[in-house]
Design a protein that fits this description.
Layout lengths: L8 E2 L11 H12 L12 H15 L8 E4 L2 H12 L5 E6 L4 H8 L3 E6 L10 H7 L4 E7 L11 H14 L2 E5 L19 H6 E6 L12 E4 L2 H14 L5 H12 L3 H22 L5 E2 L7 E5 L7 E2 L2 E2 L3 H12 L1 E2 L1 E2 L8 E5 L4 H18 L1
Parallel strand pairs: 1-13, 3-4, 3-5, 5-6, 6-7
Antiparallel strand pairs: 2-8, 7-8, 9-10, 10-15, 11-12, 14-15
Helix pairs in contact: 1-9, 2-9, 3-4, 3-8, 10-12
């Protein structure tokens, strides 16, 4: 629609609307100019691995060696490697609903089976001990957690994570901990589940990367930290599948992790201002509601009051109908909750300028007022 010249407001994008910080861009240029453009070890530069170990020790209170680190082509690649390394055909992997859209497919690509556990809005979009225990079978191999969360913005507290850790240790389950949004937190603080004890650390594969917090989505650098055994398997898989991640991006990532962090805080503050606006605005619209997200740059909006209503000739039966009618009639692009396994919601991204957000909210209000 945008290509056809229509004035579409997109509140659907899952990447920062900032340029990569200048010091990181300069490091990439310097790497190219100095001829650092060849192959690296398949699992990443040793220098970058050492930098990641330093970061994990400083930020997450986790002690790892370079042999525990695998640098990959984005955090999604790290997740793929993780599941390929631990899953056998028929294994079950617990996934919270709503989930990031790729989790089920990544699980199925490893010949495993996703087992869905609802994380209810009334529970803060978090796991409960009872729900986890009800999902457990003799085939359960792992659980995927994501905090701060996409799409809900929920941040798991240390107490929340302890429940999951106790469950995993008791049942000898791997935990794949997707922590890609860790520096974008507005309430509370980030805790890595692997920091809660030696037993859970041995079972945890920590996944992180440069995309979200350093505005490096297209640079494609992710990484994992795990036991030496799992890291070795992941490294072998990657060696034969893709070889090393982009060399220039690896050198840039060293600067990103070691250099000044003020740009990250600048982005975080900007996202927080937008978050505060969008939450207040959504909750002021009759019929809509949302939680105040603690992290990331998304908000899940409850649209259940409009199920069965009509916009002109179109009946709104689900989140897809709502999103489609909103786009067709008011030119606002959002993501239907059904894509995250949770109908009755839409996901808005506030990785857009405040002017675009304000304009989008005005159009959403107009659309909802018609339904009311």
């Amino acid at each position: 629609m945008k290509e056809q010249g229509e004035d579409v407001i997109s509140l659907s994008v899952g990447e920062p609307d900032f340029n990569t910080p200048e010091n990181i861009r300069k490091a990439a240029f310097e790497a190219m100019e100095s001829g650092k453009i060849g192959y690296t070890p398949a699992s990443g530069l040793v220098q970058l691995k050492k930098t990641i170990c330093e970061k994990l020790a400083k930020d997450n209170h986790l002690e790892y060696d370079v042999k525990n680190i695998v640098v990959s082509n984005g955090a999604k690649h790290s997740l793929f490697n993780s599941l390929q390394a631990i899953c056998n055909p028929g294994d079950e992997v617990i996934v919270g609903v709503p989930y990031w859209v790729s989790y089920p497919n990544l699980i199925e690509m490893s010949d495993a089976i996703p087992v869905y556990v609802e994380m209810k809005e009334c529970d803060g979009f978090k796991f409960t001990k009872t729900a986890l225990e009800n999902a457990l079978t003799e085939k359960t191999k792992a659980i995927i957690i994501n905090s701060p969360n996409n799409p809900t913005g929920t941040v798991f507290t240390k107490e929340d994570l302890q429940v999951i850790a106790d469950f995993a240790v008791k049942n000898d389950l791997y935990v794949i901990s997707d922590e890609i949004y860790e520096k974008l937190i507005y309430e509370g603080e980030h805790t890595s589940i692997a920091s809660l004890g030696d037993k859970i650390k041995e079972l945890t594969i920590v996944v992180n990367g440069m995309s979200k917090c350093y505005a490096m989505t297209g640079w494609r650098i992710g990484y994992s930290a795990s036991s030496e055994k799992i890291a070795s398997i992941m490294s072998n898989i990657q060696s034969h599948a893709t070889s090393n991640p982009n060399t220039i991006a690896q050198y840039a990532s060293i600067e990103g992790l070691k250099g000044p962090q003020d740009s990250v805080e600048t982005m975080r503050k900007c996202f927080e201002e937008r978050k505060n606006y969008i939450v207040k605005a959504i909750n002021s619209i009759d019929g809509l509601s949302c939680r105040n997200p603690e992290g990331a740059f998304y908000v899940m909006v409850n649209i259940q009051n409009f199920t069965g209503k009509h916009y002109k000739e179109k009946q709104i039966n689900n989140s897809f109908d709502f999103s489609e009618a909103l786009l067709e009639n008011e030119k606002v692009a959002v993501i239907p909750g059904i894509g995250f396994g949770q109908d009755g919601y839409i996901r808005l991204s506030y990785a857009a300028s405040i002017e675009m957000i304000q304009k989008g909210i005005e159009r959403i209000k107009k659309f909802v007022d018609y339904l009311n």
